[in-house]
Amino acid sequence: MNLSEKLSGRTSYGQYYTRMKMILNRPSAKVSGLATLTVFTVVFFTFFAVLPTFKTIASLKREIEDAKNTEAKLQQKIHSLDQAETLFTTVAPNLNVLNQVLPSEPEFERLAWQLHWLANKNQLTLISGSISEFEPTFVPVTLTLKGNYLAIKAFMADLNRLDRLIEVEETTINSKSVRLSGDSLTANFKLKAYYLSSSPL
After folding, report:
1. Are strands 166-174 and 138-147 parallel, antiparallel or unpaired?
2. Contact at 8 Å (CB) between 103 and 195?
3. In whole angstroms, what is the distance from residue 191 CA to residue 169 CA?
4. Tens digit of each residue's pLDDT (9 = 90 or more) over 176-190
5. Where are any strands of DSSP class E within the chain?
6. Is this structure's pTM higher than 0.70?
7. In Å, what is the CA distance from 7 to each residue of 2, 21, 113, 151?
């Protein structure tokens, strides 16, 4: 390559550089470069800043929904507790009666006193009475009473009116001879006086 060719090559390179410089200095080229930079910046922040933010927002939204569901369940429980409190307030005055009908302990002394009182009330003679070994939910009682039929019948009716849950399991009436309604009879009773046991069966 001779000197003229080298010079011409440099000249053409210089012309190319000058042309490129002129093109890049044009306003349209500057705008295009700015637009490219803007797009790159948006893409960069989308992947490295905005996308994690969206994930955080989605996570917070789920947490808010869970919190709302939990609050709804708590409100339902509060409502149920309010209803239970209202019901308890309604039945509370009758709890003493319930404790007498079905006491938490056998209370055999009170039971014995009640049966003795009923026998006297109905003018019956208490010949014998025994309380067997307690069962887990009831006290077995056997009684032998003597008196006329109407008095025995009244005693049985009074048993059902006692403020204690008592089951008449068996009743037998014996007499060698009954001629008049006032004749004396002997009545044997097997009773179960129930109570609430706190111990497991």
Report:
1. unpaired
2. yes
3. 5
4. 655 555 668 999 999
5. 125-131, 138-147, 166-174, 185-194
6. no
7. 9, 21, 140, 150
